[in-house]
Amino acid sequence: MKPLRSLISLEEASKRVDEAIHPLDGVEEVELDLSLNRVLAEDVVSPLDIPPYSRAAMDGYALIAEDTFQAGKFSPVSLECTDVIHAGQVPRTKVERGKCIQIATGAMLPEGADSVIKVENTDREGDKVLIFGPLYPSAHVSKQGEDVKSGATVLHQGDYLVPSRVGALAAIGRERVKVFARPRVTVIPTGDEVAPVGSKIKEGQVFDINSHTLYSILAENGCEPIIHPIVGDDIHSLTKVLEESMLNSDMIVMSGGSSAGDRDVLEDVVADLGEVIFHGVQIKPGKPTIFGRLGEVPIFGMPGYPTSCLTNGYIFLVDAVRKMARLPAKRYEVVEVPLGKKITAQLGRHMFLTVVIRDGQAFPVFKESGTITSMAYADGWIQIPPNVDLLDKGALVKVHIFQ
Amino acid sequence: MKPLRSLISLEEASKRVDEAIHPLDGVEEVELDLSLNRVLAEDVVSPLDIPPYSRAAMDGYALIAEDTFQAGKFSPVSLECTDVIHAGQVPRTKVERGKCIQIATGAMLPEGADSVIKVENTDREGDKVLIFGPLYPSAHVSKQGEDVKSGATVLHQGDYLVPSRVGALAAIGRERVKVFARPRVTVIPTGDEVAPVGSKIKEGQVFDINSHTLYSILAENGCEPIIHPIVGDDIHSLTKVLEESMLNSDMIVMSGGSSAGDRDVLEDVVADLGEVIFHGVQIKPGKPTIFGRLGEVPIFGMPGYPTSCLTNGYIFLVDAVRKMARLPAKRYEVVEVPLGKKITAQLGRHMFLTVVIRDGQAFPVFKESGTITSMAYADGWIQIPPNVDLLDKGALVKVHIFQ
Fold first, then answer.
1. Domains in chain B, ordered, with CATH?
2. B chain contacts of residue A203, beta-carbon cutoff 8 Å
């Protein structure tokens, strides 16, 4: 006798997944340019001042501000220009009272000088430079260390590396950086009727769709997915593959078994090797979703139907793996548009419907859980809460865009 | 004598970039799992019906609907169950009048049968199956080809491959797929003061920041960036490297030269080898941006200052390379929050300010164009149009989130 199986709500299911998932601690060192969209695993301390030396912020002349204090529009001060400093050069001479040195933006400020006058505000006559107004000390000078002091922490463990932060790492000369390792997620397709893509399909078989949908969702959410060869739905095969996979995976996602019998076999195997945390959620599609734990390794048993598996990926997997990977929550683009067609829903089930947006209206492309066209044509999905049984044409819906 | 240089508006600059940029035609074939986030370069036609055979949509019994027409709640019809079909199996026997075959979800419908009754709606006594209500023909059957007919176009050239579409390709068994090639963008850092990350910095030098910021922006917008070794700012070096790079790049992005002199050299070299389309835009930071064309290869001369180069990357580069790559427009997350601090802007310049969001308010982190902390800490950026010179504390601003 099997006990009565009661479904749990989407909220309860999400809560249980969240409780069972923990950020991973693995760390690896990667090249700077490969650190994009990774999560920093170290506090990054600057080994140098930035700027590393006081430098000109403008093209002009390095001088001593006090020499300009008497300058006026009709009574210019004249300074003698004694040298030129290009960016990258070390100044050869110092600036003395009554003198100045021509300097390029970014070039090192010569000794003696405390400010830079913009070239536009001067006139040049031979080696004489005329200055028509006073400057304050430090004018147009970026002082050594004014942005970052040597020893200061520039970025912190847990920072998400967007392009601007990769640039900040470059600024302090980092060629390699420690980031949190990506979760290794083993995707295990099951089912005797499933054949790998590229193979010659036999009568009674279908191609393995879910492994590739799941691979894609995992890859774009910071994981290192591995697709396992297809496994039979029997207890022996499932037990063997799970015992192996739990040793080298941070998470396992099973992707087959549409029939109730197959689901029960998977539930039994998970219960035997670990713990079933739930089996059955009040969502449509995706009701027969299994979630559990093999030791510390979370395991999902996704529905076999391709569209159920797809929306389930978005509902459960994205948040779960991003938490493991310590990534910020996924930001979906959500557009609000009117429905182009009436939708009848099912009370008591939280519905996820793939839709296409045409002429500013959302039309369901979901025909039944198994359909491929609904996956190929969909622009995104909408949700219908469990207490709504009808959405009229024209009702405003929020479309989560696939991107 | 140089002619008077007039700056152009951001709108005009964006328009000129858009006019000079064309989608690329290069095509490559990739493995299915590497096609994620690429753009399809072929119309994909299904070589098979989907479903490939008529199959059960539920666990139950395959039967002839007409046998159930007389069934009622209190006058069940009894059929003899003659066999079992699991998913992946080819049926061994056919269904005859008065008989049925047990069938699993997804399994091939046996010859003779035209419908499936759900197991929940039956009672089983030995090899007898009791049925308590009539079924219509085709009930719970997914008919061969009802989703996709062999020869139908499932996806079209230009479709952006999100996980659901990768799944659709798997459904028709595609192991490899033709996608548009990624734009090869050569990033050329220039400047005698610039040293590569990981090197020992010399006095008067700074690390090459911009190459890595640009690499990141390009990589996350569908390009194949290549960072060229650092090049001197002189005419001879620039001419040589551009003559070489224009032969094997779809776009060139120069990333240095903060000083007016360096910019003029670059402008001269671009004018000599091709055409300067603009030099100088009414934006802050990023005013001295150069855009041109070397034969068919677009070239950007980005400002040398790291934050200018960063915001310029978002302003010009993202749209340009996504158009070349045929990718959909970048979707930014934009949040509207009040300013935590008054900002004085400059009339006549379209401003881009990096900001951090703290306690639901946006605070500028932009100190000056050269600062690294502003890059490390920024959550995103705001724009201030050229006809606004003051934004009060509390004014609502739209923050484009770095992601």
1. 10-26+181-325 (3.40.980.10), 27-48+156-180 (3.90.105.10), 55-142 (2.170.190.11), 334-401 (2.40.340.10)
2. 53, 90, 108
